[in-house]
Amino acid sequence: MAKLKDIFQDVKEVGQKNLVLLGNEAIARGIVELGVAGVFTYPGTPSSEIPTTLFHAKNLLKQKDYDLYLEWSTNEAVALESAYGFSFSGLRTVFICKHVGLNVAADAFLTLINTGVLGGLVMIVAEDPQMHSSQNEQDNRWYTKLANIPMFEPSDAREAKDMLKSAFEMSEEFETPVILRTVTRIAHSRADVPLNPITNPIIPNNMKLKIDPSRFVCVPENARKNKLRILDRVEQISKSITESTWNQIDQGSNKEYAIITSGSAYAYTREALNYLKLDFPLFKIGISHPFPKETIGGFLKANSTSTIVIIEEADFILETFIKKLAFEVNFSGKIVGRVEGVTPSHGELTTRKLLIGLSKVLKGEISIPSIPLPTDNFQFSRPPVLCPGCPHRATFYALNKAIPKRHRIVSTDIGCYTLGASPPLHAGHLVICMGSSLGIGSGISQLPNQTDPVVSIIGDSTFWHTGLPGLVNAVYNNSKLLLLIVDNSATAMTGFQPNPGEKLSITEAARGVGVKYVIEVDAFNPKSSLELIKEAVNNDGVSVIISKGECRIQYVRREGLPDTTYVVEPSRCVGCHTCINRIACPAIMWSDQKNSKGKVIPVIDQFLCARCGLCSQVCPYGVIVSKDAKEVVGE
Amino acid sequence: MNKMEYQIFLAGVGGQGILSVTDILCNAAVEMGFTVRGSETHGMSQRGGSVFSNVRFGNVHSPLIMERTADILLGFEPAEALRYAQFIKPAGYCLVNKHSIPSPSFILSKDTYPEINTIVTELKLYSRYVFAQDATKLATELGKPIMQNIIMLGSLSAVPDLPLTDNVLQMALKQQFKEPFYKLNLEAYNLGRAKFEEYLAQNLGNP
Q1: Rounded distance, CA A343 to CA B4, Å?
Q2: pTM for the whole structure
Q3: In sequence order, which residues have a C-beta less than 8 Å from that of residue A293 and are 6 or more positions away?
């Protein structure tokens, strides 16, 4: 990743210098080139590096007299509502979330799109085809059809920055929010990006808002007018984009086939055509909503004897609308796409997948390089795991000691601690979305004749995000459950963004909504917390245990590693393997030594060990002992 | 720009400094006037998981390398090199760190981690040149095991058809590290480079 001083460097001329940036860094740079004054977000992969880059550059921007209000909102609904409020200033405003974050914000989103806005408001929404870091695969282009909101679809990091400018211009001209859609392979991809000068926002000395209640109070009478407004607005935008260079046609030399593609799929399309050395007419759609009906109609007409090939990533939305349009304009040629197997129905698109798809519809042989068959079964998984020193591991160890795994129902939530659902911790039977642990747990606890204790697990940031209403609900409906809040004082999974826990107390919040039994325990002292967990599951109603232990990565970054480390004493180890089987810390491995009974002795990898000492508390024979780190690893 | 394209596939485990090497390669490529594209693992999958990064430059559009086309596979961990072996082209160079990092899933399931030599033999199925060294051991001898990534970068710098020059790569290395760390990293780079040059001298005539 690029250095902050490089990302936010001054350039005098437009496009003077190219810098290799991550898509998200390019967008962060774009935000300050365009004089954006407000950024509202809740972090979520693959969008998080946009606000995080800006957040880390706070002082740097201050030195440049750049006034940026950056808000880590408690959730995406609040973030969008706040961005909407801020945009009434006329100052450029950005809302950022991951694809599922738009679901959280959907209620606000689907109505504020009707009122429109008075200042530029761009919603940057990052999708995650293939679910690298997500719970579902969701094509948010469908939302544009539901909400009638314009959408820009960049095909790479460079375009993402350029399109942000066009998106603001459209937003301001037509008083509408606009979506800029990225996917993992844009957000987390790199490209050499030309830099334009940074433009500081011009903040008026005397901020006066002119808000017309007959438009912005969405009671039915006004809402009906707003419905007409949005229809008219989208009609006007439709007309305005017929000449847009973002919807661009390359005239090919070989007209046997003609291709229509958009956004992220364009890059793979170009790669595949280069590989095949084919030059077909190609329509690259950059603004996919309003659906560019006229331009696509013209393209169909111009290529009426060609087979039209539609290439898109994720769902077949273009295809659906193009096939409908073909019917309306009496296009009699052939149109092929997802239905014919050109693109896969799930997962992210790749050049190879596309070549395989094209081989189904293009005439003639396509040679796709074959992959050698392995000579042996080398399958080995390396799933993400809780880090060495993670406080969640200690909490789940205590939970497992307190309540037998077979006799409990555990609903967990979204965060690092979701990884605790894997063996050997098994701390989680269910997880769907942010904040769901409480609702699911509460629902199960209301079942008649279900006697196993119900435990809901949630992290600090997720608790503030959408856990709180679930807690209120559980208290109000007298659900019998133990809420285990794993408070690591960080939004760790997405890269250490701050959350309300910096200033607010979870304990006070839980007491405030009426929970009688609220206690805090030290995550790194599992012996004491397991007794309290045992006690709490027998309580009636809702009990809350807050297991506090700072994210070890955050702690070590600030404080450095402790001077005391832990080692297995090989001469005393009985080879029971409790350490490995109970906590599975990545730093504990098999050594090549055996004890006198022939049992393999575990060893602690001092390079990976974060020196939390959990293993020494877990070892039933006390053979994992603390040692001066200098003696063990040297300086 | 001509029609050439060059692709480097980096594979390893979260925390091995793969993104740092990616930075250096990208900065060197843009310094030499190439169009650059790449993609990498961030977020959840990074937590001790399998991590890869793609660097492509020249006449490129997509951020991802297609299977069987990478010019170089730089494996920071042997099992991870093998996981992504299908990306290397048959005439490509596979450079791999022999130091293994078993994951808890290996440990729990009591699966045995494949023999390093078996992995190296298997890698030869995919590419003509396979160069394996214990970069972690070399880096530990230099004083910092984490520098195995720069040793691997140094080895990569000596790949015969690499369009990035030693000079520009060293400049990018200097850009990446603050002064006190730069010297040691340069030492690691030069050591890695020398090791691969040695291999080339012995093997290139008769691979």
Answers
A1: 27
A2: 0.96
A3: A238, A325
Between chains, do A372 and B126 touch, taking CB under 8 Å as contact? yes
- Nearest CA to A350 out of A297, A409, A275, A287 is that of A275
H or E segment to which residue A258 belongs: strand A257-262
Percentages of chain B per state (helix, strand, coil), in multiples of 5: 45, 20, 30
Q: How many Å separate Cα A466 from the centre of its chain?
A: 16
- Å between B148 CA and nearest CA of chain A: 13
Distances (CA, A) of B197 to A31, A125, A443, B170: 46, 47, 65, 17
Which pLDDT tens digit goes with each residue over A276-290? 999 999 999 999 999
Residues B172 and B23: their CA atoms lie apart, in Å, by 8
pLDDT in tens, A289-305: 999 999 999 999 999 99
ipTM: 0.94
Residues of chain A in contact with residue B60, where contact means CB-CB under 8 angstroms, are: 271
Strand partners, A97: A125
B30 part of contact set with chain A, CB < 8 Å: yes
Taking chain A, what is the end-to-end CA distance rounded to the nearest angstrom?
30
Distance CA B169, CA A538 (A): 64
CB contact under 8 A, A192 and B36: yes
Residue A31: which residues within 8 A CB-CB, separation 6 or more? A39, A50, A54, A94, A164
Of A45, A192, A355, the CB nearest to B35: A192
- Domains of chain B in sequence order: 5-203 (3.40.920.10)
**Pair B177, B32: CB distance under 8 Å:** no
Does position B43 have pLDDT exceeding 80, yes or no?
no
Q: Do A53 and A4 touch, CB atoms closer than 8 A?
A: yes
Q: What is the pLDDT of residue A592?
A: 87
At residue A597, the 3 state secondary structure works out as coil
pLDDT band at B180 (very low <50, low <70, confident <90, very high): confident
According to DSSP, residue B12 is labeled E
Show which of residues 67-106 on chain B sit within 8 Å of chain A, judged by CB atoms. Answer: 67-69, 79-80, 82-83, 86, 89, 102-106
Q: 3-class SS at A588?
A: strand
Give the type of residue at B151: I
Q: Is B129 a residue whose pLDDT tops 60?
A: yes
* Strands in A287-436 per DSSP E: 287-289, 307-311, 335-336, 409-411
End-to-end Cα distance, chain B: 32
Whether residue A191 is predicted with pLDDT greater than 60 in this model: the reply is yes
Q: Which domains does chain A have, with CATH numbers?
A: 4-240 (3.40.50.970), 248-361 (3.40.50.920), 391-555 (3.40.50.970), 562-633 (3.30.70.20)
